[in-house]
Write a structure and sequence with these properties.
By secondary structure, the protein is an alpha+beta fold. The longest helix has 13 residues. The strands form nine sheets. Strands 1-7-6-2-3-5-4 form a seven-stranded mixed beta sheet. The chain contains eleven helices and 40 strands. It starts with a strand and ends with a helix. The radius of gyration is 25 Å and the shape is globular.
Length: 579
């Protein structure tokens, strides 16, 4: 099977062929009219429709659902042209079929894969918007970065900094990049069931392309944007507005993937990253090993030159690399979403849960000694370690979160409680010193480690709650209820009977998707659907909010300025910032 995009200009390749058109809305109708007028040698056998569509005939031809066509054996080896207002969603309904060719007739999508790449550097458009503060909201020393994709698959990338000291948003808008990896080639060489998270080849590449996180450099001169294992790094100069899409490998080396979240090195404007050949990633998906050869690099943002520090073999889709507070060690983890065996459409809820719990393969995280090049691996007793955050006082202690999420055809399932682990790096060994979890803890998007009154705390998002953990004992310090939710307020993800209930994890306007800390640790910034809420650690309550002036702002992992720097460095930088 091959999947590709096309426009009407490419229709001649189907002359004298039989095709199926998926779409009975305005897009499918326009395509059919064009074929009848300009390409009468193309034979349309029938139309496919979404289950909610009411058509039974269109242009005098039968209109079938995917299930009906599948039952009649009409999809295997077929040529399917998708012409629909939601082509990505439509493609996902064909994941378990084996057409010969699928073409998405979309000028927008075609531009993403066949338009080539813009030369670097580019320029970003800067906008400044004042905050709209709720009466009584305190002024706090906080800089929180955010990133999102606006306007769908072809929309612009948005980098944003919320400056709570100056009470303004500083936002940069820039064109989204085209994809240098061929959709047709990827779909031809990588089997559908080898992709993560039950994705189509198209949704996999769009997912890689989506902005994941932005991080502000220690000097506040650079804003680093990182996507989900994309083919370069976005580097924005906040003084000039110049955007560089950085990679330094010659074309003959092929494409390389970059880590989804890198790290700044203490007070220096140098960025630590990991990358690996896309050819390794494709080979690893095909043979099931998911092994790649990694390079660990340090990028000087002033010279845009990188030094490769070490190389080692590890698992594909490394999600984050974090450097220890003393610059000695770096820790890594992949983000491998789980897949149940069998056809997910035929599995009941309880079957999926039992399948995952019985077949789960634990992942390991890697620790690299940057001085010696020695690498060792630590297995986490829960699946899918994802994010690392450093202790603000002890340079060799960090906190890793583990997801228990399984996106599949019908949404996102959570099959056991999430966890946070306290880890200590020793010489040649990384050990677990404590764990925080409970039956209703859904580790969703982020945890933020910060210092307050001389002690380390962890703020973790949990659907409709924010849980603040005393990191010394890994015990709950305070649970802040954002909004009532009868389902999650009574959730027990250790109870087999509870797990039989059909549920997903849909977004809710009141839920906290991201949390950051102010420089002095007293305040937490909760990123909600329509506002930032300011939580006061002393009062254990929300003491104000910043309302978004425009539409809802989607949030990435809202890493704050100087995230993961040692506490003495954070304090000195914030003293200078507040002057």
């Amino acid at each position: 099977m091959s999947i590709d995009t096309m426009t009407w200009n490419e229709l001649p390749e189907f002359d004298n062929k039989r095709v199926i058109i998926f779409g009975t809305d305005k897009d499918g109708t326009a395509l059919m009219e064009h074929i009848q007028t300009r390409h009468p040698s193309i034979t349309v056998d029938f139309f496919l429709k979404q289950p909610t569509a009411t058509h039974r005939q269109h242009f005098g031809l039968p209109v079938l659902t995917v299930e009906e066509a599948r039952a009649q054996g009409l999809l295997a080896g077929a040529n399917i042209l998708i012409a629909h207002t939601k082509p990505v969603d439509v493609l996902n309904t064909l994941l378990d079929d084996s057409p010969a060719e699928i073409r998405l007739v979309s000028r927008l999508l075609h531009g993403l894969f066949h338009a080539g790449n813009a030369s670097a550097p580019l320029r970003a458009e800067k906008r400044i918007t004042p905050f709209f503060l709720e009466r009584g909201t305190p002024q706090i020393p906080a800089l929180v970065t955010n990133a999102y994709q606006a306007g769908g698959p072809g929309g612009e990338s948005v980098f944003e900094m919320a400056d709570f000291q100056n009470q303004e948003y500083v936002t940069w808008h820039m064109p989204s990049p085209a994809c240098p990896l061929s959709l047709k080639e990827l779909s031809t060489v990588v089997p559908q069931d080898a992709l993560p998270m039950r994705m189509s080849h198209l949704s996999y590449l769009l997912w890689k392309r989506s902005v994941h996180v932005t991080q502000l450099s220690p000097s506040r001169r650079w804003l680093m944007g990182v996507r989900y294992n994309w083919f370069w790094l976005d580097i924005l100069n906040t003084e000039t507005g110049e955007l560089t899409r950085w990679h330094d490998l010659p074309p003959e080396d092929g494409l390389w993937d970059y880590v989804a979240t890198g790290d700044f090195d203490g007070e220096r404007d140098s960025f630590l990253f990991v990358r690996w050949p896309v050819a390794d990633a494709i080979a690893g998906m095909r043979d099931g090993s998911n092994r790649v050869h990694c390079q660990v690099g340090r990028l000087d943002l002033d010279t845009m030159r990188a030094d490769i520090l070490h190389e080692f073999d590890f698992q594909d889709r490394i999600h984050q690399c974090t450097i220890s507070g003393d610059g000695r060690y770096m820790v890594f983890a992949p983000m491998r979403m789980l897949r149940p065996g069998g056809d997910p459409r035929q599995l009941k809820q309880e079957d999926i849960m039992r399948n995952l719990q019985e077949t789960v393969v634990l992942d390991s995280m890697a620790t690299l000694d940057l001085h010696t090049g020695k690498v060792w691996f630590t297995e986490i007793p829960y699946p899918i370690p994802a994010h690392f955050e450093l202790d603000p006082f002890d340079p060799h202690v960090f906190y890793v979160s583990t997801h228990s999420l399984m996106p599949h055809a019908d949404g996102v399932l959570c099959f056991q409680p999430g966890t946070l682990h306290k880890m200590r790096i020793l010489d040649g060994e990384t050990v677990m010193e404590g764990t925080y979890t409970h039956p209703g803890f859904i580790r969703t998007t982020q945890h933020c480690v910060f210092a307050w009154n001389g002690a380390p705390y962890i703020a973790a998002t949990n659907q409709n709650k924010l849980e603040i953990i005393d990191a010394r004992e890994m015990r709950l310090w305070h649970c802040h209820k954002i909004a009532d939710d009868p389902f999650y307020d009574n959730a027990d993800f250790n109870d087999p009977e509870f797990l039989k209930k059909p549920f997903n994890l849909p977004p809710q306007p009141a839920w906290c998707d991201s949390v950051s800390a102010s420089g002095d640790g007293r305040y937490l910034v909760l990123h909600l659907h329509d506002r930032f809420a300011i939580f006061d650690m002393e009062k254990k309550s929300v003491v104000g909010s910043v309302v978004h002036r425009d539409n809802a702002r989607p949030s990435s992992h809202g890493r704050y300025w100087m995230q993961n720097a040692p506490q003495d460095c954070i304090e000195s930088r914030y003293r200078a910032f507040r002057r």
